[in-house]
Every structure is written in C-alpha cells, then in structure tokens.
Amino acid sequence: MHQYFVCIITNKSGTLYVGVTNNLERRIFEHKNSLIEGFTKKYNINRFVYYEEPHDILAAIDREKQIKGWLRENKIALIESFNPEWMDLSEDWF
User: Fold this and answer.
1) Residue 3 and residue 16: Cα distance in Å, rounded?
2) In 24-67, at which residue ranges do the beta strands (DSSP E only) sit?
C-alpha cells in the first residue's frame, strides 16, 4: 500500500511551502540539503512543520490544492493546531 503526505515546510523568515510526496523522509532530506532547484532552494525552505497523510494520491493532491488556496493566516492556524511551537518535526531524522 502506498503512502502519501501533504506537508508544510518553512524557513527562518516564515515563508511557507506546501507540497505532496510519497516519501516524506526523502523529500524532507532533499529540501534540507537544497537538492531540488526552484522555490524551496531559492528561499532556503528547510524546516518541516506540518504534515497529513491522506488515504490516496488524489486526496493528497486535492488537499494540497485546498491548503495552497488558503490565506496565510489559515495556513498558520493549521500549523499551530498541530505544532504550536513550530518545531522542526524532522530535527532528529538525519
């Protein structure tokens, strides 16, 4: 059975990135080590603060789109309901 995750990653200045992956640990490693060109590398997005595990890929993509469409304040409320201290959830992974 496949696993899919919707995650939110941030940086020191609070820029938010919402994404979907089927391998959370690999994807966070890639972000932490700036291995992917683009937005997350440019803005040093490397602090993993939120995730969900939808039941399938279509639900994950729909949820990612939903969260991306929210106002910033709603994304912050979601993160803080799950991780009030904004701790890096992958701090001891690598």
Assistant:
1) 23
2) 47-52
**Residue 41 CB neighbour total at 10 angstroms:** 15
Determine which helix (DSSP H) or strand (DSSP E) holds 80, and give its type and residue range. helix 72-82
pTM across the whole model: 0.94
pLDDT digits (tens, 9 = 90+) for 30-85: 999 999 899 999 999 999 999 999 999 999 999 999 999 999 999 999 999 999 99
Candidates 3.20.20.70, 3.40.50.720, 3.30.70.100, 3.40.1440.10; correct CATH number of 5-82? 3.40.1440.10
* pLDDT for the residue 22: 97
Q: Dihedrals φ, ψ of 29, to 5°?
A: -60, -45
Other C-beta atoms closer than 10 Å to the C-beta of 36 total 13
Give yes or no for a contact between 50 and 87, defined as CB atoms under 8 angstroms apart. Answer: no
Q: Which two tokens stand for residue 63?
A: 């949820």
